[in-house]
Sequence to fold (174 residues):
Amino acid sequence: MQGEITMANAADLKKTMADAAQTGAAQAKQIAEAGVAQARVSVEKTLETAHKTAGDVMKASEEAVEFGRGNIEAFNKAAQVYVTGIQDLSRQTATMFQAYSEQAIEAAKTLSALKSLKEAADFQASFTRTAFERALADATKLQEASMKLAESAFEPISARVTLAVEKISKPLAA
Fold:
């Protein structure tokens, strides 16, 4: 009887196998549920990271667009200051040349009214010295105005460069 399986043994074996199958199925279900839960957490974290990254990229893009807009405004302001300054310098130059012309006409009238060569030579020397001093003073004024214009025109661009350096160095310092 050792080799024979009895009905009672078969029923016990069947019950043992059913219990083992049920226990295995329960363990498989727990493993699957744990895997699904881990996958869900992983997917949620990935989505959260992707959403945050997308938000950061959008924010960086918006900041880049705004910075670019500020650069364009600075260049427009610089160009406006430059054009206005050049117009002012042109008016100053025209006024100076008009004054030189009037001075030359007056000098010619005076020179033509003089009676001697000595008076003409003295007048010419005086006129030349006065004209040279005036031209030197006017050239100095134009040079100072030109330098001031260059500084004023470059100021908006310089401010943007300073801001760019601050923006670039801020993440490096953090």
In short: Residues 7-173 form one domain.
